[in-house]
Amino acid sequence: AQKVTQAQTEISVVEKEDVTLDCVYETRDTTYYLFWYKQPPSGELVFLIRRNSFDEQNEISGRYSWNFQKSTSSFNFTITASQVVDSAVYFCALSDYNQGGKLIFGQGTELSVKP
Amino acid sequence: DAGVTQSPTHLIKTRGQHVTLRCSPISGHKSVSWYQQVLGQGPQFIFQYYEKEERGRGNFPDRFSARQFPNYSSELNVNALLLGDSALYLCASSPGRFPPSGGYTFGSGTRLTVV
What we know:
The complex is a heterodimer of chains A (115) and B (115).
Chain A: E1 3-5, E2 10-14, E3 19-21, E4 24-26, E5 32-39, E6 46-52, E7 59-61, E8 64-69, E9 74-79, E10 88-96, E11 104-105, E12 109-114
Chain B: E1 5-7, E2 10-13, E3 19-24, E4 31-37, E5 44-50, E6 53-57, E7 64-68, E8 74-78, E9 87-94, E10 105-106, E11 110-114
Parallel strand pairs in B: 2-11
Antiparallel strand pairs in B: 1-3, 3-8, 4-5, 4-9, 5-6, 7-8, 9-10, 9-11
């Protein structure tokens, strides 16, 4: 069975702090994709990153970085020097190749960045 | 280019009624997926349509149905509405059936309230 767990329901930090959002996934497939999406109060899901199961390289995009470790089935997301505009709900999601376009989402982590 | 367009943005219905939600994908995208997001939870996969055929179905009752038209737009129909159907319904589009490197593009959603 496929499952995504985001154990942190809510995180609150002060601006300029670094923050890491955890994501643990379960799947039996060897080919799969992992995603992070941001959902601001407007409701629209904003794509942040896609990673496939064969690429364990960490990725950095500006203040955002992602750490993918197959050995622990984790795909964690770090925001460096957080800003108030980073406040949103963040979702980790899994898509198995054999399931086509079906995304399995975690419960989400609500990040609040205070000035 | 226009993004994913969903209509209506908000809707209030009475228990037992029927509702139709609409989605227009990004031009050139042939796949549309539907998700239900109950308040405080991650989105749940309902359907994927690709090239006008159903390619995936989530764990939802038969009251939920969908179709895709020759222009790749899609409708989600829900019959015999229940209070528990109150949610944000999200539509996602992509060029093909499988996860694109740029992720799925989501619309802003339709907020359905059943009273």
